[in-house]
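Known limitations

Files may contain more than one protein. Parsers should not assume a single record per file. Below, a two-record file is shown to illustrate correct handling: read the sequence, read the token line, then continue until end of file.
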Amino acid sequence: MPRWPHLPFPLALVLLSLAVGLAAGLDGPALLAAFGAGFGRQQGYFALVLLPSFFLAAALTRGEALGLGRLGVALSPFAGAGMVCPDTAYAALAPVTAGHRRAVAVGSYAGFKLLLPAGPLLIGVALSADVASPGFALLGLALLLPVGAAGLLWLRLAGAAEPPAPAAPPARVAPGAGLRRLLPLAFLGTLLLAGLAGRPSHPALALLTSPVGALLATSLATGALLPPEHRRECLDSSLRRTAPLLLTLGAASALGAMLAEALPLRAWASRLASGQTSLLLLLLLFAVAATFKVVNGSSMATFAAVPPVLAPVLAASSLDRTFATYAICLGSFVAILPNDSFFWLTQPSEAEGPRRGADFTFAGASLLQGLLGIALLSGALLLGGRLR
């Protein structure tokens, strides 16, 4: 029996999207047109978000020695959001938060899913939500607090104790020197808060305080302060990480577009619009996103693939796009499984003792966080809270 080769994930997505298009009865020109439109749907926006984010991530790993302790846990959600990658945020903060590695993992993952400029921005733009509205960002922050607390509680209930931090000789670092590495995150947060406080009328200021503009401005300011050799290293790192991810996101977006062509979404949309409640649609968005995440393991691919599939359903409904965005974000929490790179990154090290197989602690935490989040979001919807 011939064995199937191990296909790279982007290639598997491309082949699957073409198979879906053929199964839907699309002829050659229609198939290529649908694939091309889906592949390029949000590529430009993804590039503008990912390039500066990965540059910042690389820059934050260079500089003076830094020890954060519990402060790293509080910063982890904002690092996960600002770097648009929980893996990078965790890898950067875990070594400098001795004794709090697991809490940092929970915080980085939650911030990536619920805070600008990460998951909510990428999904909200695809759903035509008002991502510049203060209410849009505040809803994510309001969800982050209980969802993050639930993840930390799960760590306690699961008995996921931190290993004792190894003793290390004290490093001679000037007071506050290491904290300079956190200035880019503070600058980014300041610009985002300025945008939430009010929308400037001047186009340049409006761009500067928007999520994408704040990322670009922060990366430029950070690059200007780096030594030339480090600046080049950070630029190369950003390009190396962005290019293959854009291919994956394009393929995932194309798959979503093909599924939108193949599935009877217009018929489903008319049924939902005619007789079903917004709450049912909210739960449907959560379930579809969770299914995509469990199957493919990639949060970013889920962000790219789900909106094209659900856009026709949302177009025929009255569900607020802010609620729709966060329902998909919460669905993508489910779950940190072995097909997710974050699963393996957060596995206990040998220093924590012998293992009898993979550790599924964070799988349970992410499942609890997603379920609690959608319960809270559903409650807000039932209470009639429409954010403007």
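...continuing to the second record:
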Amino acid sequence: MIFVDKKIKISIITILIIISGFMIYEIASGNLLSYAFDEIGYNYTGFVSIPNETTNGGSLGGTYNIEGKGQKFTFNVDLRGAQNFEDPLCYTSSGLTGNGTIDTINITSNTIKDLLNRNFKSAMFQTPMTGHFDMKCAAWTGYSNFSNNGTDFLGYFKINGVDTDFQGTYKFVPDGTKIAVITSYTWNSVGQTNTTQVDRTYYM
């Protein structure tokens, strides 16, 4: 009986060592991935297009840049020449700028690999995360919250302008080599309660 008890104890100890080994590996791997993510800088530039939806108007296009390191990032959208056609309260040559933070993120080895390979789009869509950012353009300011569960990448935004306020939702959807930004929002003149509904798609 004593010999059997020793075998049982040895088995239990062996199992505990194996379980502890897996736990340490998982904790260490998670810490290493988080450390790697915090140390990797990323810089992504692409083209943004605002399609024309009026009879006499023209579409707008320009570049956007997202730059960051770990959970902090900045971005800029520059619609070349738009300042010549847009209300200076809405847009100037300094463009749209913003600062953001990734609040939670489920970092995987694929996240690190995509960032190292400069495949920002893949990292963005395949990594579950939540975050927020503020933004400013000409005389208006705004903010947004976003979340990606690995399947749907959704967000809410609000813009406070001098003459007009906006609020609504958006969804990022892969569209070939581009990213479609599907928006649904309302706007109203400051001080007025009547709102106008807009459903529009932009492209990055």
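Parsers that stop after the first record will miss the second one. For reference, the second record is described as follows. The radius of gyration is 24 Å.
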